Each structure stands twice: as structure tokens, then as C-alpha cells.
Amino acid sequence: MHSTRSSRESSNRVEPRADAVPDSPTIVELPPGSAAVAALARPGDAAPANQRREGNLLDVRNLSTQFFTPAGVVRAVDDVSFTLGYGETLGLVGESGCGKSVTALSVTRLVADPPGKIVAGEVIFDGIDVLKLDEDEVRKLRGKEIGFIFQDPLTSLNPTLTIGYQIAEAIRQHMGLSKQAANDRVVELLSKVGIPRAKDRLKDYPHQFSGGMRQRVMIAIALSCDPKLILADEPTTALDVTIQAQILELIQRLSDEFGTAVLMITHDLGIAAGMCDRINVMYAGRIVETGSVDELFEDPQMPYAWGLLDSLPRLDDVRGDRLRTIEGLPPLLIDPPDACRFNPRCPYAHDLCRTKEPDLTARGATGHFARCWATEPEGWIR
Amino acid sequence: MATTQAVGRAATGRRERTGLWWDAWGRLRKNKLALVGLVGVVILMFAAIFGPMLAPYPYQDQDLQAIANNGFRPLPIGSPGHILGTDQLGRDMLSRLLDGARISMSVALVVQFVVLFIGLPIGAAAGWFAGRVDTFLMRFTDVIYAFPDLLFLILLSVTLRDTPLGQAYDGLLLVFVAIGLTSWVTVARLVRGQMLSLKETEFVEAAKAIGVSDRSIISRHLLPNGSGPVIVAITLGIPGAILAEATLAYIGIGVQPPRASWGSLIADGQKYIRSDPHLVLLPAICIAVALVSFTFLGDGLRDALDPKLKGKQ
Amino acid sequence: MKRYLVRRVLWIIPVLVAVSLITFFLMHAVPGGPWDQEKKLSPEVIARLNQIYGLDQPVYMQYLNWIGGILQGNLGPSYVFKDRTVNDIIAGGIPVTIQLGIQAFILAVLVGLPLGIVAALGHNRWPDYVATGLSVVWIATPSFVLAIILIIVFSVDLKWFPVAGWEGPQTWVLPTIALAAFPIAVIARYTRASMLEVTRKDYVRTAQSKGITGRAVVYRHMIRNALIPVVTIMGPILAFLVTGSFIVEHVFAVPGVGRYYLSAITTRDYPLLMATTLIYAFAVAVLNLVVDILYAYIDPRIRYS
Q: Which of A175, B39, C25, C303 has a CA-to-CA distance to C209 between 20 and 30 Å?
């Protein structure tokens, strides 16, 4: 992955990447006659499923998800808001335990209840508030409109069912195809995700595939009903580094091809940089910075983001030097005080940071927001 | 979630006592069923140890006077002088039940010692030396395992009952040995498994690198770490041992009369079950309490020592 | 996988040989001969009896004779019933015991599995407590105690079923229940634990994310996977059914092999004892093998490896 250049002498400002993406990727409207569309068109569907449209596909407003444990109420996701446009790729970046996975699970209401519960907020998907639907209606969304790619393909696939069956399951549930038609579609999907001799492998079991292949199967499952949105929860973390790039490239290619929006959850900034149009940085259950890839990498506005960027190993690092880390540990999410949650680890913290939590405020005019007293226009870092 | 909690402890700055056993004890305390079991076990142990001192009568004494007054029928519960009644020979039920408790609890403990005595070395040897030693020992245990427990038990008891071994302590010694001989395989297998997996861990490699002797490694590193599942297995094996002893006594080849094993009490009382059900019900309840208590305790220990199994918090 | 199966089948032979050796030599290690019962017999009579029954030969010869006989289907003469062979005595008993065992097994599976599944699905609510409570009670009750209670309640007081014997379906009910109680409890507990573990597995979440019905998730993903480990306890369950049967047979006076086994203990009828032991061991070994084969078959990870 490409490293960012940051000079340690200057005041933590990041210079433009040599190969920075010039502008956000355009969303291509699928021409009606293309082979790709023909292969995946639903019966009776004239127009392709995902076109660029006005408005937002996903509009999360003030989402709060909490876990009720004997030790206390853990506020895993605390008043989180963000939007995702049709066909857009949004990154949700943060370290372990910051709430990014729980956010994604909350969008489809897959949070384990008990002990988890979505306690507040709205999740507007394609105009419908998911949180207000009843269980049956949510079920209809899952798999069909929203696909999920989970982190560990070994444990996320049922070891006692063939992969052909598992991929076809959602298809048969939502699209009502016959067994034969569903299997045909499965074969198409398998070729699309790059599994050779797809037809022969329908009756194979997950343990007969390698890790990378299994993740491709997961991707096939997620894409099986041509969803508008894919939630990808650390899809490459459990894989070999060499396979990671392939899988990411596959996800990107497929989402471009079908105009699917992707919510890419990762702790790896490098991955986010390579794939996303915009990035949300999460910390301790809150979104602390949001902006386009360029904005975030060129002009990050929050010490946590600086730390993250700085900690990426660079090609010109001297071997034997210590790796740069952010000192300290993330905070307890039970009963957090009204203060900036990052302040114990922040080298720039002032009293204000310890007594009042900053709001997410604008930096510049283009949708770049950050949650930090210090970098506000009146703050003490310029 | 786990990260959050671990971090939570660090963030609040309190230094809590941690460590395998302390954590496990904390979890055990929260498990209500396990606590019930623990209470039951404690009561039984108490009865077993102090029974003879607390019993109103020696267990084999017959109160012929009271029986004669009752038409040679057993006395019911609540009779004067015999709070739990008597059996058909006038022997006080409470005293006999206490003797039965002593028998059952001693079976529970001693058998596990026998099991450990046989199973631990065999399992440890198989796991530590691996290779041909392992194969040979495992084949040997397979053969023992293939023998149906109860059959082997009966066979041993029957064939050895006229020997000095069989006569000792009214047959109790034979019961210990026989039950122990038939139940050590599980523990041996477990110890072997633990040994095999722990042997490959890094801290063992490190100890070896420093030059610690094999025996020292086993006793100071492997045993403490691997003992969790073994403790659970032993506790869960106790109900089986108690049941086996009761069954043997019921058939008539276990502990010999006039000792009052709960199993033989049931066998004796069968005939009177319609007229004097307490003869059968009382020992049956005792057996049930013993089995349930150790089972709950064993389950609780298992959950406490390996929280991954339960997945709670 | 085939190699594994072949090995398992072949392995039964040495196991049975070992069992027979142990049984035989235990019998012959016992002081006192089989004639030491009621009346004292004169030495000449004893010597004569020994000669007839081949007991004057060296031990290993006796063993070989006995094994030879077994392999030809001759289980030996009975020391007690001088006019009958062991074959005669137990021939009638084996079908009865097998029937009882099969009935109890079917009952155990039919009741135990659903009980465990229901308990797991209703975790921490009343179905769980009821099912767990019942299974605890059954585990804590020895089969002979349960048998006695069943007899009292159902035969003597309610007079629904006959007290003992084995003629017709009416007599089959109580013994089957008494024998099946413990297996039901064990199966239920195991199934419940297995289901609870499966509930937390990642692939269940994947299944839910596909939007299939809750029912489909439970049947196709949870129960399927939960049942596989349950098969592993079928071995010990079957062994229990074999050995527990003779206690139950004793209490209910069922004319199966078990009854003779127990009487042979008291009368010291060694050939009978040895033969029945061997038969039981053989049955357990074969049943365990069947379970192992079944397990290897239903878990795709083993089948296709």
C-alpha cells in the first residue's frame, strides 16, 4: 500500500500524495444492454438495479447502540451520524473496540439482543427507517438490499452445507427462483468472484477451499441478490497479506460494475485510502472526523487522525527505528464523562478538552468535519 | 467487547487480583446452581465425617423392643426415638443413612484418588513421550475402555469377593479398587491431551532452553496449567462412582451388610415399599442429592474454569 | 476415510480377545472352585466333576478350549443347570434384551433431542428451566430406583400396567421407560449444550444476514450443526443401554439375558457368566463402531478429508 508522506519537523500537516486520487470516482450507469446486466438482471426487471441517483442511499442519524452487561451499560455506538450515497464507497476506520462493527450490525439490526440494543436514532435506507420496521420487513431487506461480508470466512460459513447451497439460499429466499435457475445464477456469481471451475465446485464444502477462496464465496453470498449496499466488516483482516490485495480489488471492481455502495470497515488506513471515496474516523463510539479521502489525508484535523497517519510505516523509514504509536489505550465506554474521549492520549490537550466534549464542526466548506477543540478556527493549533 | 472490558479495568486504574484461579472462583460464586451444589457437597461431607458421632444409634443396632411393639413392622417417620423411622429389623434409619453417607463420600473421594493414581501417570507418560509409548498406552486404554463399565465392575467384584482384598472393610476396599480400575481412562485421556498441547507451548520451550529438567517442567509448568479440565473431569466423575457403588450394593455384591450403603438400603426396603415407602424413598433422596450436588458443582467448575465454553461476558 | 474405517473394524478383534482373556483369567484366579456351594462334596466327586468339565487341564488349555468352542458357536455347558448348555439358556433371552434396548433407544432419542432443542431455544426462560430440571432429576435417579417407583405408581396403585413379565406391549412400557430415563436426560443435556454453542457461531449470523426466515436459520443452520456432536455420545448411551438393561430386567423380571447374568453371579455359574460378558462386550464394541462410522459420515469435514 502507498505510504503517506509526513515530515516530522513540520506541524503534523500531511503533504499531498504523489499518486493521490485526482477526483472521486464517478459512478457509472450501467448501459441497459451490457452483458453484466443481462447476467444479473432479475426476471421482469428492465432497468439495472443500481443507478446513480439523487440523495443518499443510507442516512444514519444519531444512532446509539448499547450493551447491557453486568459491569454496566456499554455505549458502543454513541450518537453516530453519517450518510452514504448511492454507489459510493465509504470507509469506517478506527481501532478495535471503537464501535465500527457494531455500527454496521446496527444498520441491519443484527446486534445480539440481549445484551445489545439499539436505543436511539434513525437508519434511513433508501427512504425507509429500518429501525421502525418489524422483524419480517427487516428480514426482507437483509440479503436482498443489503449484503454483508464478514471478517472470518472460516467461521462465517456453515461447515455442514455446500457452498452452492449457501450462496443460493438468499437467492431462493428473495428471488423465488427454482433450484435450477438459482444454481445457474450461483455459477455466474462464482465465476464473477474469480473461482475457477465454478460448476464443479457447487457441491464442495467450505473446508475444501482456501482462505482467500472462502472470502470470495462470502462476497458471492453478499452480492447474490444484487443489493444496493454492501457492509464489509474487515473483509481482509483474517487473510494473508498477499491475498488481501486481490480481495480488495475484487470488491472494488464488483462494486464499480454494479454500482453497489460499500461501507468498508477497517482498522487499516491504507486499505481505506485505496478504496474509499470518503472516510469516517471513529473513536470510542463516536465519529471524530469525516471527510473525503483527499481531505483526510492532506489536511487531517484531529490529533487522533494525525496519530493514525503517522503510525503508518513508510517506505523511507529507517530500519531499526521504533514504530510510532499512539500512547495509551481507548477509554472505557461505560458512563463516559463529558469530555473529549481522546484527551488522555492527546499531546495537545488543554483544560477545555477535559471538561467538555467537542462537537463535530466543519473545517472548510466541502463536508470535512472534525471533533476537536484545538483545531477549531478559534483553537490553539493552526 | 472483550477489549473494552479489559481496557476498562486498566483505565479505571484499580489493580484487581487476577489469575486463573481467582477469576474462576469469582465466576463460580456467581453461578447459583454451582453454589447449590457446593452447599450440598459440604453438607454431605459433614454428614460423612461427623456422622458416626452425630448418629443417635450405631447403625447396626436393632431396637427389638420398639419393633416388637409395632407388630414387627418398620417404624414410620416421626416415631419417638427414631426421627426417620426404622427398617424392618429395628435399625434406626437416620443412623443408617449417615453410615451410607460415609460410604458414598468415601467412595467419591477415594475412587478419584485411585483414578488419579492410575490415570495421571499413564496419561502424562503418553503425552510427554508421545511416539510409541503413546501408541502403546492408548491401545491399552482402548481395550479397557471397550469393556462395558458395569460388567467389568461386577466381574471384578464377584471374582475377588472371597479374597482378602474383597473382605477388607466389609467389601469397601474392593469397591474402591474396582470402580477406580474402571474409570481412570477418561482422566488418562484428558491428561494426555493436555500434555500434548501444552508441551508445544512457548513457555515450555523457554524452560527447556534454560535447561530445566523434564520432571521439573512437568510438575511446575504443565501440571498447574493443565489441571483445570482434569479437576472438572474428576468432579464430574464422582456422580458416576457414587451411582456405581449404589448399584453394586443393590445387586448385593458391593459393600456387605450390616453396613448401610444407600443401595443396599433400597434393596432391603423394596419389599416394604407400599407399606413403608420411607425405607426406599429416604436413601433414594440421599442418592439424588449427592448426584445432583456433585453434578452442579462439576458443571459450575467447568464453566468457571473455561469461560470460553459458556461465552457469557 | 476408508482406511480409518477398516482400521476400526479390525481393531475390534484384539479388543475382544483381550476382554475374553481378562474375563477368563479373572474367573480362574478366584480361590475355590465352582463346586463350593451348598453341600460339601467329597474329593473324589470333585475330581470327577473337574475331569468332566475339563477343569483338570492346564489353564491355558482350558482357555483355548473355551475360545475354540466360542468360535464354533458353542458357549459351553452351564455349571448349574447340568442339563443345559449356555446356548440353551440365553438363546431365548437375547431377542428380548435386544428388543428392550431398541425400544429404549428410540424413546431416548425421540424425547431427548426435542427436549434439548426446546430448552436451548427457550434459553433462560421457562422451557429451559423445565427441561433442565427434568433432566437433572432423571440423572440423579438410579435406574433401579426409578424402576421401583414406576412399578409402585403405575402398576400397583394405578394398575395401568402389569408389574412384571414380558408378554405383549403392555408389559413393555414400564421397563422401556425405566431404561430410557437416564439416556433421555443425557441426550437432552448434551443437545442443549450443543445448541447453545451453535447459537453463538458466526455462521448463524451470516445466515441471518441473508434474510432467510428464522425457522430456516434454526433448522438448516443450527440444528444440523448441533446434532453432530450429539452423535458422539451415542456410543456411551448405547453402552449404558446394554449394561443397564440387566438391572431393569432384574427389577421387572424381564426374561432377557440380564436376568441370567445376575443369577449366574450368585450361583457362580462361570461359563454362563463368561459367555454373557463376552456377548455384552461384543455388542458394545460393534455399537461403538456403528456410531463412529455414522459420525464420520455426517460430518462433511471428516467425510471429505
A: C303
